[in-house]
Amino acid sequence: MLTFETRHRNTIAAKVADWALDRTLSRIVGRGDLKVRTASGKVLFFGDGSGDPVSVRFTDELAQWAFMIDADKRLGELYMDERFLVHEGSLYDFVALLLREAMGGTHPFAARVINWIRTRAWQFRHRNVPGRSKRNVAHHYDLDGRLYELFLDGDRQYSCAYFEEDGQSLEEAQFAKKRHLAAKLLLAPGQRILDIGCGWGGLALHLSSEAPGGMVLGITLSEEQLAYARARASCNDTEAEVNFALQDYRSVEGLFDRIVSVGMFEHVGRASYRDFFRKSAAHMTDDGVMVLHTIGCSEGPGFTTPWLDKYIFPGGYIPALSEIVRETEAAGLTITDIEILRMHYAQTLAHWRARFAARSAQAAELYGQRFCRMWEYYLSTAEAAFRFEGLVVFQIQLAKNGSVVPTTRDYISSGHSGAEGVPNSPSGQSRKTD
């Protein structure tokens, strides 16, 4: 039985926790309609009542403190462990509301201090040496392939799509991304092409159709992706040779006319940027062209959120453009074109999130409910970050000799004409473009 003093202390502790949460969220949320039920049962209201209502609940006081002190790490864990619950609206709605309102820099003081420390500590992050890189890749990409079939397009494109117009399907936008990259590579018959971080092989196979008589080598550190890509290559009917290998970019040999890397640079690690670009330059012919497609931070160098680093992409880092440019210059490469894709990844993630939600029961059969909550948190926070936190996608074209690239960008749009076989369903069916 609780004594009077114990109950009194508990009451005071609950009031302090509720007061601190009220003060924290009041400083962040000025617009919107947010209702928070605390662990003590008190209901707090935030915003001006505009927009769709969002209602959430903390199940214990420690969860409230964890959220206030270090939301970047702890909110995801609280959601996974059902210590933070969403009763009205969605998890995305809650995260988007906070990030949208926090754009003015109203993060709590403790969170700002922790973020300051993390940003500087990241400068001393260990290198992603080959063995560690393979383990990091396996953590995410060697999951059961059936999981990715639940939310990706039929070609398993697991990177930012390219939405050329409103209302495009995910399949159409992913095909447009491949076509856009192929145009920037200035492909021609007989070329040797290297795809660094080839995923499940879709882009490599597409490029092979654009370079008849040539050779495409796709490399990955994921054994699951390799097996899938090789199975696809065995059915490939293009006029180019297509090979896939379980290989680190640091061990590649030979020269290539074209190099492409999509969604892989985020796993290189800042300490290894110089190695990456020097290796790329060493494998590029004198008249070669490279296109790097990577998530980037438009607001300068930062850090990877600790929750994402622990649960989703260990060893990952999102670069600022300044960090990339410095190392391309050191490698003797010339930047011949930069395109910033804004909001394209937010749209891509919105498609993935909706598809995953619609088939979450199947995901739970594979990995359980806690995994599903983790994946929902990953997709929701990623989409919100691309909408409200300065995340973009860089497409950077590089060459040793800048004269090999046309002086205007007309060739990119002209490379979009005449494309065939746009898949329009996860089953891989296709149609002709108009």
Textual characterization of the structure:
The protein has 434 residues and is α/β, with parallel strands linked by helices. The chain folds into two domains: 4-122, Nonspecific Lipid-transfer Protein, Chain A; 130-431, 3-Layer(aba) Sandwich (Rossmann fold), CATH 3.40.50. Helix content is 45%, strand content 18%. It has 16 helices and 13 strands. The chain has helices at residues 4-28, 61-80, 91-101, 109-121, 130-141, 145-149, 170-185, 202-210, 223-233, 273-282, 306-311, 321-330, 344-358, 360-367, 369-388, 410-414, and strands at residues 33-37, 43-46, 53-58, 84-88, 192-196, 215-220, 241-246, 256-262, 284-297, 334-341, 391-399, 422-423, 430-431. The strands form three sheets. The chain has a seven-stranded mixed sheet, sandwiched between helices. It has a four-stranded mixed sheet with strand order 2-1-3-4. A hairpin with a 5-residue loop joins β1 (33-37) and β2. α1 packs across α2, α3 (91-101) runs parallel beside α15 (369-388) and α14 (360-367) crosses α15. The relative contact order is 0.12.
Report the end-to-end length measured between terminal Cα atoms. 76 Å
Q: What characterizes the major β-sheet? A: 7 strands, mixed
- What is the CATH T-level topology of the largest domain? Rossmann fold
| Number of alpha- plus pi-helical segments | 16
What is the CATH architecture descriptor of the largest domain? 3-Layer(aba) Sandwich
Going by CATH, the homologous superfamily of the largest domain would be Vaccinia Virus protein VP39
Strand order of the largest sheet: 7-6-5-8-9-11-10
- Uncertain segments of ≥5 residues (pLDDT<50)? 109-114, 424-434
Number of strand segments:
13
Query: What is the structural class?
Result: alpha/beta
Rg over alpha carbons: 24 Å
Helical residue percent? 40-55%
Shape: elongated
Order of helices and strands: HEEEHEHHHHHEHEHEEHEHHEHHHEHEE
The tally of domains stands at: 2
Q: Report the average pLDDT across residues.
A: 89
